TrEMBL record:
Keywords: Hydrolase, Magnesium, Multifunctional enzyme, Nucleotidyltransferase, Repeat, Transferase. Modifies, by uridylylation and deuridylylation, the PII regulatory proteins (GlnB and homologs), in response to the nitrogen status of the cell that GlnD senses through the glutamine level. Under low glutamine levels, catalyzes the conversion of the PII proteins and UTP to PII-UMP and PPi, while under higher glutamine levels, GlnD hydrolyzes PII-UMP to PII and UMP (deuridylylation). Thus, controls uridylylation state and activity of the PII proteins, and plays an important role in the regulation of nitrogen metabolism. Residues 920-962 are annotated as: Disordered. Residues 949-962 have a biased composition (Low complexity). This is Bifunctional uridylyltransferase/uridylyl-removing enzyme. Its cofactor is Mg(2+). The gene is glnD. CDD domains: ACT_ACR-UUR-like_2 (cd04899), ACT_UUR-like_1 (cd04900), NT_GlnE_GlnD_like (cd05401).
């Protein structure tokens, strides 16, 4: 933030510039000396002006005023530069026609609004071709602007050049549309305006509108196709400033208006809609100016690291279970939604004027079904208008408020896009959706039929949400509209996630994802409670943002809404159960040992029926896939499939449709078919090396790679080998390690990753029957280019191989990594440790969660190693910034850890690992190490005592569990 004490009032800017010019010698003729005289003072004036603009922004909270002030100050600075150059350096006392120039602001600068880091777009307008005088003037001005470190976009053209370029280039045409005269020859600018309107604009509105909308589509696709991305681009993202700019360009071009307020008189906006336009524009400008001030650069992406700072600068505080940053981002997304509404209004008006082609519904192919017939609308209040569903008159919703629901039901039933006029009327009629409409049986019947439609209603539900009807009809849904969760795991707002998850569910049922989800495709048709599944999908995150656990609170919402939706008692109970346990299957699959019968027994005890198991599997898949791109992986698919089959076996009394042994044999047969160059004896020997849980938990693609990897190692005579592979689509790099088993192998692997700054987001850890370990570590990608990423992975692999051969000590490498206090702490995750002896028959289960960071897994495994705990199984999961690492451990005698004092020692050691990551913990880093050492000493004493007391026949870890 700039120092307000150095700020100057804008009224003083002109005086300061006047004094500066007065002090420059009239006879000065050296451009270099002029810059030396101008630049330091101009820089001081600009910095002081920016400081004043920031002070006013913080005090008055007016984004337009801030951007306008910065623009006015820049106008004055450029005018001073122009005067210095034209009246001092290249003075023309009796200028000829060739010695005329007009300086014009274009683009964003032409609109009269500038953010602190905005580009300065200038047009130097000439009467005809450039002369030596005009070239010198332009060059001298630009050198001063460049010395001031301003980002300048410039063009030097005659009027004829501008018209010719504008006709052929839509970007130049748009820049000219927003041109604003600054100083110089006004007659030149007036000629440009008149001829531009007559020779370029007239008769080309349809061409311009279509080009601008195509340009917008390409832009938002590049920056993120949804306006509900949790790290939005305020300038170029969907629902951002550029969308509002595009609306005004289109309207200005089509309606031939000068100012935005003229659009009300032109009939494009109502007075209320124009106030909404101004409110959206001001808010986005306010956010953008704060972003530039806070970062000191032209930052347009509202990243997680920046969001809390902007929320604080805007004055948001925590309230109603939402953090300050979440309240701010909800405001942002509501504004983005309003921008979408305004876009629809403008597009509808352009279409009415035949300046834009009517859209087609994205499910247009279904219009050509074999038995297609024109829709026979059942209600007199509706009509087909330009191929879309519209209302017969503006009183249709007042006559029957249920029409607000029926509108979307008819849209889905007949595959009809809704006319923008109908959407606009629905938004204006939201007050009609009161308590009586919400409990109306017909309204609820129509809504549930829409929700469970086999026409893939995602598009219609999203439209229903954007008009405000969905949140008004289901107030609990309205509470999570535009709500973001301040974490790195979820890519979309809560309402958008719910609608996307319904879309995934519909695609699974329609068979569109059969190749990707064969098990879900097979069982979804056998589900008896289809309606309950869809309602649960709609409600599973509806209680996000409340103080209570959202799963439990969501189940209460489901029990309330079920009867209202027309569900019977059994359906309502099923929906409530699914909502309450919608995370159970995912967490069990990713953080529990699925080869442990106790895991399956515990999970089956909660599920209790095959029907619930089917429902939960399909819901879990749709939920994960709707989180965002790259979240669903083949590894998660395999884990869920394994958990499903193992639980199916228990719930069916051991009579699974595909018994475990048969599933293993089928998996091996499929792999055998892919390894055609292997002999039968060679494959049988290889298959026997892996325990059954390997075949059930590893996806087919990885199994094939592992087989070839291990065979190549054996042929080369190597016992310690590594392989690396990048996965650009998931943004990760996979590191595969094959080595003889080693007591500290996991610590060595994680330490090598930590030493390179690698962040482990997943790990598959298996031991073979002949004493080898096959581990696949997944790291967050650090470099964009594959060759750079593979070099980094190669360094990690080399370090692992050398450490396993005893050539280096991993601890020495890790000691050189950056200290924790140097890491940014955008997120705060309270660390937690659960010690459970009931989840496994043989081991103690340590579930550790906390803020993820490079080196965390190494620190945890090293701490457990110092406690003389034997890690028999590890399960690594990362949910954005939150790490959930589960370790199945025994003491050195192979028994569970049951002593309270021993458990307390483990807790102290684990919490010490996270101590440096807590607020104010940088100083405690040394204390954390000391605490870990103390814990290790306590553990050593306890272990010696245990060993002395243990019977010689103390149980050893079961083979194959490492």
């Amino acid at each position: 933030m700039s120092d307000p004490s150095s700020a100057i009032d804008p009224s003083d800017t002109q005086a300061a510039l006047g004094q500066l010019l007065a002090g420059i010698d009239q006879s000065l003729s050296d451009p270099t000396r002029l810059r030396e005289r101008l630049v330091p003072e101009l820089r001081r004036i600009i910095e002081a002006g920016r400081a004043e603009a920031e002070r006013r922004l913080l005090a008055n909270r007016d984004g337009h005023a801030c951007a306008g002030l910065i623009c006015a100050q820049m106008d004055a600075v450029i005018r001073a530069i122009y005067d210095a150059v034209v009246k001092r350096l290249y003075r023309a006392d009796n200028p000829t026609a060739a010695e005329q120039i007009a300086v014009v602001a274009t683009g964003g600068y032409g609109r009269g609004l500038l953010a602190p880091g905005s580009d300065i777009d200038l047009l130097f307008l000439l009467p005809y071709k450039q002369t030596a005088w005009s070239e010198s003037v332009v060059e001298a001005m630009l050198y001063v602007l460049w010395d001031l470190k301003l980002k300048v976009g410039h063009a030097t053209r005659s009027v004829a050049d501008c018209l010719r370029e504008g006709r052929g280039d839509m970007t130049i045409r748009t820049a000219l549309l927003e041109s604003r005269f600054l100083f110089g020859d006004r007659a030149l600018f007036d000629e440009l305006e008149t001829r531009f309107d007559r020779e370029v604009v007239q008769g080309t509105a349809a061409e311009f509108v279509e080009a601008k909308l195509k340009e917008r589509d390409a832009r938002v696709q590049k920056s993120g196709a949804s306006r509900y991305l949790v790290e939005p681009n305020v300038k170029d993202g969907k629902g951002g400033l550029r969308d509002l700019n595009t609306l005004f360009w289109i309207a200005k071009y089509t309606f031939r208006v000068k100012e935005a307020e003229d659009l009300v008189e032109a009939g494009l906006f109502t007075a209320e809609e124009f106030r909404l336009f101004e409110r959206c524009d001001e808010f986005l400008w306010r956010v953008r100016c704060h972003m530039h001030f806070a970062t000191g650069r032209a930052e347009e992406r509202l990243s997680f690291g920046l969001q809390p700072r902007i929320a604080e600068r805007l004055g948001y505080g925590a309230r109603g279970g939402l953090a300050a940053v979440e309240r701010f981002m909800k405001s942002y997304f509501l504004i983005a939604k309003d921008v979408g509404d305004l876009t629809a209004i403008v597009c509808a008006e352009m279409e009415a004027r035949h300046a834009k082609r009517p859209p087609v519904l994205d499910r247009w192919l279904r219009r050509f079904k074999q038995h297609f017939r024109a829709p026979d609308l059942e209600a007199d209040d509706f009509r087909i208008h330009t191929g879309r569903l519209d209302m017969r008159d503006d009183a249709a919703f007042e006559r029957d408020p249920v029409n607000l629901i029926r509108l979307f039901w008819l849209s889905d039933r007949h595959d009809l896009a809704i006319h923008p006029d109908a959407s606009r009327l629905a938004t204006r009629s939201l007050s009609l959706i009161g308590p009586m409409v919400r409990v109306d049986p017909e309204a609820n019947r129509l809504f549930v039929e829409l929700l469970t439609s086999q026409n893939a209603p995602e598009t219609v539900l999203r439209h229903m949400n954007e008009t405000g009807v969905l949140g008004r009809f289901v107030p609990d849904f309205g509470r999570i509209v535009a709500m973001m969760q301040f974490n790195m795991y979820h890519h979309f707002t809560v309402d958008e996630h719910l609608i996307r998850s319904l879309g995934v569910l519909a695609k699974i049922e329609a068979g569109e994802l059969e190749d990707e989800h064969p098990l879900a495709h097979r069982i979804v048709g056998t589900i008896q409670n289809r309606r309950a599944l869809y309602v649960a999908m709609f409600l599973h995150d509806i209680a996000k943002g409340r103080k209570d656990d959202h799963s439990i609170a969501g189940a209460a919402v489901a029990r309330k809404l079920g009867p209202r939706f027309g569900l019977d008692a059994a359906e309502t109970s099923t929906v409530a159960w699914l909502v309450e346990h919608h995370l159970l299957m995912s967490m069990t699959a990713q953080s529990r040992d699925l080869s442990d019968p106790k895991t399956i027994e515990t999970f089956a005890g909660v599920v209790q029926s095959l029907e619930r198991l089917k429902l939960l599997l399909v819901l879990t898949i749709a939920d994960i896939k709707a989180v965002g791109p790259g979240v669903w992986t083949a590894w998660k698919a395999t884990l869920l499939r394994t958990l499903y089959y193992e639980t199916e076996m228990v719930l069916s009394g051991g009579r699974s449709k595909i018994p475990r042994t048969d599933r293993v044999r089928l998996i091996q047969m499929r792999l055998r078919e892919q390894l055609a160059d292997w002999t039968a004896e060679e494959f049988d020997a290889y298959a026997a090396r892996h325990y059954p849980h390997y075949w059930l938990k590893v996806d087919a693609g990885r199994q094939l790679k592992n087989a070839r990897f291990i065979r190549a190692a054996a042929e080369a005579g190597n016992t310690v080998v590594t392989a690396t592979e990048t996965d650009l689509s998931r943004g990760v790099t996979e590191l595969c390690v094959y080595s003889p088993d080693h007591p500290r192998l996991l610590a060595i692997l994680t330490g090598a990753c930590a030493a390179s700054g690698g962040n482990i987001v997943d790990a598959q850890i298996f031991t073979t029957a002949d004493g080898f370990v096959l581990d696949t570590i997944t790291l967050s990608r650090a470099f964009e280019r594959d060759e750079d990423e593979l070099r980094r992975a190669g360094r990690i692999a080399t370090a692992i191989e050398r450490a396993l051969k005893g050539e280096i000590r991993i601890a020495d490498l890790v000691a050189d990594r950056h200290p924790a206090k140097d890491r940014p702490r955008t997120f705060q995750v309270a660390p937690d440790l659960s010690i459970d002896n009931a989840l496994s028959a043989r081991e103690t289960v340590l579930e550790i969660s906390g803020l993820d960071r490079p080196g965390l897994l190494f620190d945890l495994t090293a701490a457990l190693g110092r406690l003389n705990l034997n890690i028999t199984s590890a399960h690594v999961a990362t949910f954005g910034e939150r790490a959930v690492d589960v370790f199945y451990v025994t003491d050195l005698t192979g028994t569970k850890v049951t002593q309270p004092d021993r458990q307390a020692t483990i807790r102290r050691a684990v919490m010490a690992v996270f101590e440096a990551d807590l607020p104010g913990g940088g100083k405690g880093r040394r204390g954390g190490k000391d605490a870990a050492k103390d814990a290790a000493k306590d553990a050593a004493k306890a272990t010696r005592k245990e060993a002395e007391q243990a019977a010689p026949e103390a149980a050893a870890p079961a083979a194959g569990e490492a």
